[in-house]
């Protein structure tokens, strides 16, 4: 059983071009063309078209302060008020992800909060909202995989290696290294919603000389501070089925199960959590039959004791999608 999509699925060439940007969001058309066997002009033209039509967007990878944790929220709401409540949540800086269930009566969201704190949203604001019938909040204990880690499975391992520009351990900022100065922060802010902006465009946005911007971009990239994320529309990649899978796993199998999920090509988020379901995964699938195989076959042998699956009807709010993309702090 296939699910219909409003937008046509991209051809394999375009899907591979998006996957290349997942390896390095500031990848040059020349390098991508060399690895993928395409002309640089073709690569540049197709990237421009894909971004113009909303199939893909490259942003700076969201990063949150180390002291900030996350809650996975399940909010049951009267159907007539669901969209209004989702809009109110999307306006908050501490809610980067919002999904609306296909059943129409549930909002699933990620709330950034300090671990162990009595979150005002969960304990006061939502329960006091007349449209809300129940609120569940599970604390994320460990992240096995997050959305920025997901890679569309259309490139070979060798192609990914050739396209990637990941700083090694020696390039990762250490505790003794200086924090970004005002110019660095201005450059990063200018790239936040368009991480492929040229040095000239960043210079115009920041008022800094282009030569300074070029040096800062190179230094930030070498230090591992210029981390990009290619945000793609999964429906255009032939993955229209979006689902959250909540698992109860034996404690001694939890870590191995989480790592196995993180390695699965359909999983774009995997978290160990508090609550009855101690392992939760977000998946994109080709159709419902593939989702069934995932639940009935791929989860076998992981120590799973119970499974609950929630189909997502609409990915309402994501970093890099929509008019607002701001970081907390």
Secondary structure layout plus pairing:
Elements: H1 12-23, H2 29-36, H3 40-52, E1 56-60, E2 69-77, H4 82-90, E3 97-101, E4 106-113, H5 120-125, E5 132-145, H6 157-163, H7 182-191, H8 199-206, H9 210-222, E6 228-232, E7 241-249, H10 254-262, E8 267-273, E9 279-285, H11 288-298, E10 304-317
Antiparallel strand pairs: 1-6, 2-4, 2-5, 3-4, 3-10, 5-8, 7-9, 7-10, 8-9
Helix pairs in contact: 2-3, 7-8, 8-9
Note down, in words, how this protein is organized.
Helices cover 32% and strands 25% of the residues. The protein contains eleven helices and ten strands. A hairpin with a 4-residue loop joins strand 3 and strand 4. The chain is globular, with a radius of gyration of 21 Å. The model is unreliable at 1-5, 167-176 and 322-329 (pLDDT under 50). The strands form two sheets. An eight-stranded antiparallel barrel has the order 2-4-3-10-7-9-8-5. Helix 7 crosses helix 8 and helix 8 crosses helix 9 (210-222). The N and C termini lie far apart (45 Å). By secondary structure, the chain is an alpha+beta fold. The protein has helices at 12-23, 29-36, 40-52, 82-90, 120-125, 157-163, 182-191, 199-206, 210-222, 254-262, 288-298; strands spanning 56-60, 69-77, 97-101, 106-113, 132-145, 228-232, 241-249, 267-273, 279-285, 304-317.
